[in-house]
Design brief:
GO molecular function: oxidoreductase activity, acting on the CH-OH group of donors, NAD or NADP as acceptor
Number of domains: 1
Pfam family, one: adh_short
Strand content: 15-25%
CATH architecture: 3-Layer(aba) Sandwich
CATH class: Alpha Beta
Number of helices: 6
Oligomer: single chain
CATH topology: Rossmann fold
Radius of gyration: 16 Å
Protein name: NAD(P)-binding domain-containing protein
Largest sheet: 7 strands, parallel
Distance between the termini: 37 Å
Length: 227
Amino acid sequence: MATSITLVIGASRGIGRELIQQISQEPSQQVIASVRKPTDLINASNISSIILDQADRKSVQAAAAQVTEIDTLIINAAFGDAEKVLTTSDERLSEYFNVNVGGPLRIVQEFLPALLARQTRRIILISSESGSMTRQINAKGGFSGPYAVSKAAANMVIVQLHNELHDQGFTLQAIHPGWVATDMGRMTGPGGMPIHKSVEGILQRVNEAKHEDSPRFVAFDGSTMPW
């Protein structure tokens, strides 16, 4: 059986760590986990790691130089907090855009040769319901503010990448993971679903993603998300 190579960006904890855990259960999968600094990862023969800070172009370039080919790129890394746009400083807004918008774009730019080296050419963004303009109108719960602004912009990055890469056989998909009991998810209070349940759904969506359906914005449970 041919080996499939998946790169998970932001794999040190939470959803990212569970992604590499579940993907690595399939022996035919090779998993590359990106982390910002050396850390203890799941010990499995089909998991390797690279150091990558998506906020820093040179770091992304150095990491990409170590990876010659990948089938699926899952961009999970992002940050957020319970903040309001009216009280967000220029510096804080720039940080959101550098990490949550510029980060995914520079990752795709630098890892594009590795994706082109294979035929699957699948790019997945772990997005958020917060990035849906339709769902954010009159929203009462969840993350909003500058985080939502950055996630909506990241969704547009996916759309524009689709426009530029579709003819080269790329499949692009943004996935809302649901309300998950991660460190960030618990900022909005208790009640988030177990991480493994969200990731099971995410991987189902990844595996069913088709070129002809690209680009899609879906939730972990398969329901369609409005852009």
